[in-house]
Amino acid sequence: MRWLVLLAHGTAVDAIKAPIARAACGRLVIAEVASAHELTEQPAVVAVTDRVLPEELAAELTESEAIFATAFAARTEKPDRIGEGLPWDAAGFEPPDAPHDLNAESNDQSADLRGDDDV
Questions:
Q1: Is 48 exposed, middle or buried (0-12, 13-18, 19+ CB in 10 A)?
Q2: How distant, in Å, are the alpha carbons of 32, 67, 72, 119 from that of 53?
Q3: Are 2 and 38 in contact (CB under 8 A)?
Q4: Residues 17-50: pLDDT tens digits?
């Protein structure tokens, strides 16, 4: 799982013992470990989250760190969409287009390549 990690001031990214998925400028890092507990025990780590940093910590971030933290948190948000969660054929909605027969299309193309034209 990916975790947003806030490091202590003056701490280098390589101070944490975890695989780093992405590093941001400043003190934010995205680490990939099974549980947050693996990170919270490390002295260089101030906070670990899989969503939004607490407000008191977010207030201390630089502008670029705040943008990075906001983007990380946004990855779990789903947009509000009309009809979200309803069956595909719910009243008032049109069903999706019928699926294309990809096999028929690929057979047509391979016949063209072989020169099997019915003339």
A1: buried
A2: 17, 12, 10, 69
A3: no
A4: 888 887 777 899 999 999 999 999 999 999 999 9
C-alpha to C-alpha distance for 40 and 49, rounded to whole angstroms = 10
pLDDT at 83: 81
Alpha-carbon span 13 to 36, nearest angstrom: 17
The secondary structure element, H or E, covering residue 24 is: none
User: How big is the chain, counted in residues?
Assistant: 119
β-sheet with 45-49: strand ranges across: 20-23, 28-32, 2-7, 45-49
- Residue 24 CB burial class (10 angstroms; 0-12, 13-18, ≥19): buried
Q: Are strands 20-23 and 2-7 parallel, antiparallel or unpaired?
A: unpaired
